[in-house]
Amino acid sequence: MNETPLYTGTREQARKDGLVKLWWESFKANVECKIAIESAIRRSFDGMHLAYGCASGVLDEFGAERVKYVLSATLQDKDYDGRFSRNNKAWGKQTEIACNSANYEFVVNSHPAVLDGFIDQFRQECQRREMDHSFTPVMM
Fold first, then answer.
1. Distance between CA atoms of residues 91 and 73, nearest Å
2. What is the pTM of this model?
3. How many independent structural domains does the chain possess?
4. Which of 117, 140, 7 lies closest to 64 in space, CA to CA?
């Protein structure tokens, strides 16, 4: 599991606080998470359906907090796109995303309708694991 702490502040704030290395490591992990999401979707989408459990591996590798941050940043960036459900858009707005000019680097570029299904799976898997008490909950 990638255990890089999630840094949610701006690059400028990190510079001011002497935390540029933390910001940079977190940023790189966000990009890796985005790539893992896109890869999982490519492997699990057969042209019609997204395989059950597609989000589980990404969740295991990066943890709920980082995956939620990357997905929320994506939803906020693509708020105009009607192929994302209203529920997922509302969920994505609950996470405060720092305004960094580099955020576009970790915005997921998979087809929005398929990505919406991935987000549904991610949210369901987090709820299932929370019920199983197998991980620290992330506000869903």
1. 11
2. 0.92
3. 1
4. 140
pLDDT level of residue 70 (50, 70, 90 thresholds): very high
Domain that holds residue 82: 11-131
- Residue 139 maps to a domain: no
Q: Is residue 36 within 8 Å of residue 58, measured between CB atoms? A: yes
Does some domain include residue 4? Answer: no
**Tokens matching residue 72:** 């929320």
Tell me the DSSP string of 86-116. HHHHHHHHTS-----TTGGGGS--S-HHHHH
CA distance 23 to 15: 9
pLDDT tens readout for residues 108-117: 999 999 999 9
Secondary structure class of 9 (helix, strand, coil): coil
**50 forms bridges with which residues in the sheet?**
45
| Dist. CA 85–CA 119, nearest whole Å | 10
Cα(59)–Cα(137) distance, integer angstroms: 12
